[in-house]
Amino acid sequence: MENMQYYNGKEIAFLKIAGESPMSARWLNDSNAIFMKLAKKYGAAMFQLEHRYFGQSRPVTDTKTENLKYCTIAQAIEDLATFIRAKNKEKKFNKPRWVTFGGSYAGSLSAWLRSVHPELTVGAHSSSAPLELELDFYGYAMVVEKVLNDTSKECYNRVSKGFQTMQEMLLREEGRREINEKFKSILLVLLNSCRFIYFRYFRAYCSPVFSK
After folding, report:
1. pLDDT tens-digit map of 155-192
2. Domain limits at 185?
3. Statement to judge: residues 116 and 30 lie in one domain
4. Distance CA 139, CA 156 (A)
5. Contact (CB, 8 A) for 85 and 106
6. Are 170 and 107 in a shared domain?
7. For a tag on the chain, would you pick the N or C end, based on fewer CB atoms within 10 A?
8. What start-end ranges are recorded for coiled-coil regions in this protein (predicted)?
């Protein structure tokens, strides 16, 4: 996706990276967005690239488990690099100055692309980007715990009790089915291993926060 309305011919190009959702035309058409304001200020060509599997961009026709091996961070970074090279050729850029933009996961990709392929960009805008990845990231739940506790002790106690109840229910098949019915989820019923459910989805949030 592209928008050349502000382009002044000086080979400045802005790339908006779509993250874990389909790309949206509004990012290239919202004149109030900082992305477009900067493009107007510097006369930049504007582009957007959709992340593979999050939308219509897929390297294969289906999302079978075996095909998810084509959905990695390294591959996403190379998609961005390939896109930039292709646009350089298509637009006949000789000395292009690319700046990438992204927020959250897309912000991480923006920074990582700059690190992996410094020859392709002159800058990267990385907003609220998690760069230090952690497998067992319970820190976010601890922040939520503090906010709840500081705001309302009663609210905190209710949420704490709710999590403890759900934790106990997940260890029983009938409990998982009940949670499935209440939350309209199909995941919990399909998983037969209570140990997998607990350790994969719940332990990181329940144990560190509500075990006091």
Report:
1. 999 999 998 998 898 888 888 888 888 877 655 445 55
2. 139-210
3. yes
4. 17
5. no
6. no
7. C
8. none
Q: Specify if 110 maps to a domain.
A: yes
Amino acid (1-letter code) at residue 182: K
Burial of 161 (0-12, 13-18, 19+ CB in 10 A): exposed
Question: What does pTM read for this prediction?
Answer: 0.70
- Examine the domain organization and report whether 21 and 98 are in the same domain: yes
Q: Is residue 73 a contact partner of residue 38, using CB atoms and an 8 Å limit? A: no
pLDDT per position as a tens digit, 111-136:
999 999 999 999 999 999 988 888 77
Q: Does 191 fall in a domain? A: yes
Strands (E), the chain: 2-3, 12-17, 45-49, 97-103, 123-127
Indicate if the alpha-carbon torsion angle 140, 77, 109, 67 is positive or negative: negative
Domain end (from 96, 127, 158) = 127
Q: Compute the radius of gyration of the chain from its Cα atoms.
A: 22
Count how many domains the chain has: 2
User: Which pLDDT score is estimated for 119?
Assistant: 98
Query: Which H/E stretch holds residue 90?
Result: helix 73-90
* H runs (alpha helix) in 117-186: 139-151, 153-169, 173-183
Spatial distance between the Cα atoms of 36 and 8, rounded to a whole number of angstroms: 14
Average pLDDT, the chain: 86
Give the least confident one: 41-45, 100-104, 204-208: 204-208
**What is the pLDDT averaged over residues 78-85?**
98
In terms of domains, do 56 and 98 share one? yes
